[in-house]
Design brief:
The chain is an alpha+beta fold. The protein has three domains: about 240 residues, BirA Bifunctional Protein, domain 2, CATH 3.30.930; about 70 residues, no CATH class; about 100 residues, Rossmann fold, CATH 3.40.50.800. The protein is built from 13 helices and 26 strands. Strands 3-12-13-19-16-15-14 form a seven-stranded mixed sheet. A five-stranded mixed sheet has the order 23-22-24-25-26, sandwiched between helices. A hairpin with a 6-residue loop joins strand 4 and strand 5. The chain is globular. The protein binds one RNA strand through helix 1, strand 5 and helix 11.
Length: about 500
RNA sequence: GCGGGUGUAGCUUAAUGGUAAAGCCCCUGCCUUCCAAGCAGGUUACGAGGGUUCGAUUCCCUUCACCCGCUCCA
């Protein structure tokens, strides 16, 4: 039985994990709201990351604990931050559309071969000569001897009328290149003009880089150290798709690890390992993940290595979708901000003041909301042998509700004892108390929201103080004393 | 952004140019000593806007959202 995205989305809505944003107004493309359980789940994943990064960072290769501090920067920064980072202008890839075939190409991916003065043929940059010859034959154009290629970026717009687009029959069907900028624009103050234009952050990372000096000067951290931040980021995606996987407003968990350039390659290896381990620790199954080093051709120009942690989502299968990228960004960002802000970003080694350098950065950048989606997809388990037909196999630590307290009947002393137990347990964990309806329905409901344990109060509880524990995945039951319930939960959740 | 598809209750599905039906879920009560049981009752829907029409959920137009493919994802 395969997991169907439709069913997962339906369950998310039915049980209050994730809703279409602005649903009662007809929705809004690329935005999602988190319901009561989705919020709990997201917070659990977020808190686990914060705990494992900032509160209790990993032990380093030399046996000493790493030093990582937290940050919460503004979503809107001085717009020059995004000019220096390259998000405004530099990184946008102009696209050209073909009027005839409705296809769209990256301008810098197309090459043009000039067969004659007015018959030019556009081809993909990776097209081989043999393919190109076929293309010429099809167009019935005698091809030039040398097949010399000119990048489309070097061709004047006025010459577009001579070009046959890669998949077109007619020439002159390519339209003017359009720049796509994914930054969300806004205006500061009540009037709108270019003077007060600003951007919603496209990533949380830049907030870290621009506070690097502040953190150094205020916290006594020394290289190597990290600054971690969790928060919303915004990208005006051309085409949001696949539930919450690519949305225009999303949440990131990013850490910038500042280190000596000489040590950077070792730290890169360290964080690759560490981040793989972490995703497994929150419950993702090894068999559904892939760990992938980017090839040279995939790397952005300033990166000396990028490592993807990807998950096999139902909508990407048999392929994978990115959960986290661990990138060796060199000192690119700090250097950019040093130039852009005229603020020195040099680090002076306190043990050796002659040793000055701009730290290199290893960046483990994870998608929190993508992580939530992976947890949901991973947990979704079809089981036709149980009333609900499905259950969510969250780890106890990630489950939105840790346990449900269920009086077997709504009569006698059952509800009273159940309520007392509930009042005790809820001081420690997110607990459900559910009294109404028959017990089977209540178990089924808890299965659907992934509650790992149900404690049921029956006549034996009244007689001898024991309750049944019903385990979600196996539906097996055992009896334990009511006084041991909290210890039992502690052991399962934190132990 | 392009092409195709789909929008009726929380879900699954009906019917209809003239008061929109059912099953499941949900809620209330009864009953129930362990997995959506039974009985009685109850809430909830034509994605939005416009047009045609005496009257539109139904026909037409526009729009929005979702799904699939293409494109894209610094």
């Amino acid at each position: 039985m395969t997991k169907d995205m439709k069913d997962i989305v339906a369950l998310c809505k039915r049980r209050g994990f994730i809703f279409q944003a602005s649903e009662i107004y007809g929705g809004i493309n690329g935005f999602w709201d988190y319901g009561p359980l989705g919020t709990e789940l997201k917070n659990n994943l977020r808190d686990a990351w914060w705990r494992d990064m900032v509160i209790t960072p990993p032990i380093g290769p030399d046996g000493t604990p790493l030093e990582i501090v937290g940050l919460d920067s503004a979503i809107i920064q001085n717009p020059n931050v995004w000019v220096s980072s390259g998000h405004v202008g530099g990184f946008t890839d102009p696209m050209v559309d073909c009027q005839e075939t409705k296809k769209r190409y990256r301008e810098d991916h197309l090459h043009v071969i000039k067969a004659s003065d007015d018959e030019w043929v556009a081809v993909h940059e990776e097209a081989e000569d043999s393919e190109i010859e076929k293309r010429f034959k099809k167009l019935n154009i005698k091809h030039a001897e040398d097949l010399e290629r000119t990048p489309l970026t070097d061709i004047a717009l006025s010459d577009y009328s001579k070009i046959y687009a890669p998949d077109a029959k007619e020439k002159g069907t390519l339209l003017e290149p359009k720049a796509f900028n994914l930054m969300f624009e806004t205006y500061i103050g009540a009037t709108q003009s270019d003077d007060n234009k600003a951007y919603l952050r496209g990533e949380t990372a830049q907030g870290i880089f621009i506070n690097y000096k502040n953190v150094l000067d205020s916290t006594r951290v020394r290289v190597p150290f990290g600054i971690a931040q969790i928060g919303k980021a915004f990208r005006n995606e051309v085409n949001p798709r696949n539930f919450i996987f690519r949305s225009r407003e999303f949440e990131q968990m990013e850490m910038e690890w500042f280190c000596d350039p000489e040590d950077a390659p070792q730290w890169f290896e360290f964080w690759k390992e560490e981040r793989q381990r972490w995703w497994k620790s929150v419950g993702l199954k090894d068999k559904d993940m892939i760990f992938r080093e980017h090839g040279q051709d995939e790397l952005v120009f300033y990166s000396q290595g990028t490592f993807d942690i990807e998950y096999q989502f139902p909508f990407t299968a048999p392929g994978y979708g990115e959960l986290e990228g661990v990138a060796y960004r060199t000192n690119y960002d700090l250097t950019q901000h040093q130039e852009g802000s005229k603020t020195k970003m040099e680090y002076i080694d306190p043990m050796d003041p002659k040793n000055r350098y701009i730290p290199h950065v290893i960046e483990p950048a994870a998608g929190l909301t993508r992580g939530v989606l992976a947890l949901l997809c991973d947990a979704y388990t079809v089981d036709e042998n149980r009333p609900s037909g499905v259950f969510l196999d969250f780890t106890p630590a990630m489950a939105p509700k840790k346990a449900a307290i269920l009086p077997l009947t709504a009569k006698g002393e059952h509800p009273e004892i159940a309520t007392k137990l509930y009042l005790e347990l809820r001081k420690h964990y997110a607990i459900d108390l559910d009294i109404k309806q028959n017990i089977g329905k209540r178990y089924a409901r808890q299965d659907e929201i992934g509650t790992p344990y149900c404690f049921t109060i029956d006549d034996d509880t009244v007689a001898n103080g024991t309750v049944t524990v019903r385990e979600r995945n196996t539906m097996a039951q055992e009896r334990i004393h009511i006084d041991k319930v909290l210890d039992y939960l502690r052991e399962k959740i934190d132990g």
